[in-house]
């Protein structure tokens, strides 16, 4: 025991950050204590405020400290389009690309029957109610291209069809800058099947 | 502005961690909010406690919340040996290697006249007093192998000699597992000059 206990506690606490192991945590702790105590205090305040006050948007389920998140509340968004994603980070990624002006619905996960995660756990009861209200004309499925993401997309597609709402799935294919040589077979077969006439 | 402000604040605050850019900070913030709010609260408490209470050991200048750090206070350490290092992380690295049982002196930096960092700024006045007390028989210089580290080591060597205390410098050479092919010329020339008879 050569580190004082408060520093050891801080190193241990920093390890709950994703991708931070013992060495990085030690480096972060010493960096904050040696050079940036104000940053440490600011971070503590931000963590406490966010952990205590951030909840879910009652409309789209994304993380927000507001009753209705800024996207759902914005009068300039197209309320006939609903993009379904798995996580709030997916919303952030799509927003940063600046190509979508509709609303979102955040599942906060995906269907995973083996883990006991069913339709109600990912908010599909809420989604069903919204689809029934008739405002939404198209559901864009933007769940991940994983087995669970595809299964979830399939399930939601059925749900939307049962409400008579149009459904689409974001295109799968070769990413921009991608070299064919390094792209897996599954992606290539989707890229072939989804080819578009020029 | 599509993220709520508390989440944006948290992402911004996390960026003061070393090596954390906007993408990692976002990932960390969402991870904490989605999966580990207790971890976030624990981290906030640890940050506040450490930022408010951690100061410097009055004996060796390392970071600690105690008046005298655990190493300096330990009765089992060899009080005739003093290892001089630049930062508290260096103490942690040497302690983890478990090969040294003496005391430390932490400069909290190195001499850098161009940045206005002189001997008093790295505690050499305090070191001089300790060397004058006669308890220390050998000073081991373990500052970094950089230009500033070498200059600082040279300065402290003169200081120790003026007090009649023996001085040594940790060996420079090929690191364990290092392949000669990939080792720089400076290190090789040190390794050659410091060769030992078998």
Automatic annotation (TrEMBL), chains A, B:
UniProt keywords, alphabetically: DNA damage, DNA recombination, DNA repair, Metal-binding, Zinc, Zinc-finger
SUPFAM superfamilies, sorted: Recombination protein RecR
Listed GO MF terms: DNA binding; zinc ion binding
CDD domains: TOPRIM_recR (cd01025)
Entries under Gene3D superfamilies matching the protein: 3.40.1360.10, 6.10.250.240, RecR Domain 1
Toprim domain location: 80-175
Record-linked InterPro entries: DNA_Rcmb_RecR, Rcmb_RecR, Rcmb_RecR_Znf, TOPRIM_dom, TOPRIM_RecR
Source taxon at top rank: Bacteria
Zinc finger residue extent: C4-type: 57-72
GO biological process, one term: DNA recombination
Stored NCBIfam families: recR
Sequence similarity: Belongs to the RecR family.
Name assigned to this protein: Recombination protein RecR
